[in-house]
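User: Fold both of these, please.

Assistant: Here is the first one.
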Amino acid sequence: MKINLAVLPGDGIGPEIVEEALRVTEAVCTKFGHDLSYEHALVGAIAIDTVGSPYPDSTHELCMNSDAVLFGAIGSPKYDNNPSAKVRPEQGLLAMRKKLGLYANMRPVTTFPALIHKSPLRADLVKGSDFVCIRELTGGIYFGRPQGRSEDGNTAYDTCVYTREEIERIVRLAYKTAEQRRKKLTVVDKANVLCTSRLWRQIAQEIEKDYPEVETEYMFVDNAAMKLIQAPNQFDVIVTENMFGDILTDEASVITGSLGMLPSASMGIHTSVFEPIHGSYPQAAGKNIANPLATILSAALMFELAFNLTEEGKLIREAVDASMAAGIVTEDIAGNGKAYKTTEVGKWILDYINKKK
């Protein structure tokens, strides 16, 4: 298979972690006989500093012409809390989502046995948790119009808007994801209060009939937030709107104690973007201490979701599991054991993949 990637390292630790994920991607393509080509482009603070835009037209053109995008992180202290900054790195991420039509953010939340002790929850609650959060990414209150403040500045307003098309496409994606897993879908809304949530529930109930093998439950967002803490292993696939998903996915990402380990995929109309959920961690940039595993696991997601290459993704996950079992990890999860450098972890995984029969 021909695989054409756009590689967007971004800011902070982005270049270091993306480099390791790219090496793993190259090794897997070589092993399975795929024809890989890729090109780097600027995004975020480095793009502002270089060309004045956080998401340059040339970067967008490259993404549009690529089968998938491997993305690092965006953000720089230079632009944080800087009221004089006319443009910020994070605007590049919003522009990318909008222009590429990235309508669904998928975050697998997986328990790693070696990290359960880092969870804020009891081990018996976390053990066995393995679910996917699917967040609608281009609609809702973040993008609704009108929004603003009154002339006197004492009143502010935001508008939450959803269309049938936006809801249908992500709910069907969630059902298809559930079909490939344990066949359970939780639709999260606030249908007892919000009109948009009532539309979400109505459309989900219509679509439910098309997927009789999937068990469907409907849950108010406040209850879902509690259940994620009380019994996270009861979930398989969760689908919800933009703001609810923003909050719930952050909550879900920390319960396994592995924030630096979790990948994500943003599925789009034109192409899809694969990235770790953590930020740019500028304090660690250039020190060769950043954890590359979330980005490497994002590459596994890329093989599976963008190209339907399940064996390739499985091999990457196997290599990551093996590295953790062997204690080949960076300082953020090493505990009392030896801490390895970013490049050392990447090389160990690369060697595992190359030696695998």
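And the second sequence with its predicted structure:
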Amino acid sequence: MEGTANDFTTGSIPKKLIGFMIPILGALILQAMYGAVDILVVGQFGTKEGISGVSTGSSIVNLVIFTVAGLAMGITVLIGRYIGERKEDRIGKVIGGTIIFFAALSVIVAVCMLVFARPLAYLMQAPKEAVDATVLYVRICGGGIFFIIAYNVISSIFRGLGNSKLPLIFVAIACVTNIIGDLIFVAALKLDVAGAALATVIAQAVSVALSLVIIRRQSLPFKLTRADIHINSEIKNFLKIGSPIALQEILTEISFLALCAFINRLGLDESSGYGVASKIVSFVMLIPSSLMQSMASFISQNVGAGKENRAKKAMATGMLLGASIGVIISALAFFKGDLLASVFSGDKDVVACAADYLKGFSIEAVVTCILFSFIGYFNGHGLTLWVMCQGIAQTFLVRLPVSFIMSIQPDATLTMIGIAAPLATLFGIAINIIMFFVMRKRFEKPDRVLKG
């Protein structure tokens, strides 16, 4: 594998990092479009209650998705580490254990979403006009959660192998299917929020089915046998790496659920406006997110190969690249937020509320690129416990308190609430800089064993 496109331990860092990052970015763009299409079609052909229902319901579903993505990051890092150490023979057992663990998790999550959909809607303080829509969205997605989880796990496996092109193909399949589904179920059949949820589940099911067909035709650097598909020690290994990330994601998503609840109390226009703004934010965060995912794979291979200086250079390259692009995206969100929001809704009040939130949030496009490069660097080293701790600190020391305080002001605006995110990120950058210098000598020691 050395010297190939999937080997990150040699060659030009910018060229290989950008080459690996572009398909990941493409996949994330399609994923953002995937989620945005639901809001867009419901906003144009459905109801205001439907927009709020999809917004609040998707926030609950995202809690599951990001938790799974956090656990699956352990798979990405572990596979990357084994490749860097030239231990490809262990990858089959990693994937076999993955199949068992996530199949069981899917059943548990599905039952919880089906049974507790209404209490979750009330907990989210969904506007009373949108409670039933929220419950319906969550239950339909819960019924198809197996496919949503399977897609994320399959993509994580291939990113660990250094292959970011196949996940791009998988999400492209899902995105196209979802668009077709939304047009049929929402625009044509007028099923509103139920149509959006059905389109989401069907799209993921089609993507998973076709991805398995595609995978069977690939030449892979490992063998997976039936004997590998059982409870084994590799489950413990990837959970040790992934669990802190997942816990951080759970707490971060809970904070966003709380933020959604704070905003829901302000009224239906603000709730719907925040729903629209959230979809735009998913596009704003594309560069930082692709950087973090790319960095984890890039760093883990170089750590496995003992090339710490190359790992640090990769992190610095990611920061410079991301922040440079982030300046442009930030300006667009700040000055043209109303134009962006008008794509998703024709309601002037909803558009105005979305634009207000984006003004406060916009600088996040720059600072998160720096923070996420740090996070990818630490994840690549297996220091996921630190990543969890710094994420919790950002959430509960800055983002949530500031959001709550801003939301209870007599003249509360979404701009005031939106600024909580970049303030939390700046705090995160500060503590990660301190951690980087604290750990620098330990990283440079030969034959080190890093533990989360």
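The CA atoms of residues 83 and 301 lie 7 Å apart.
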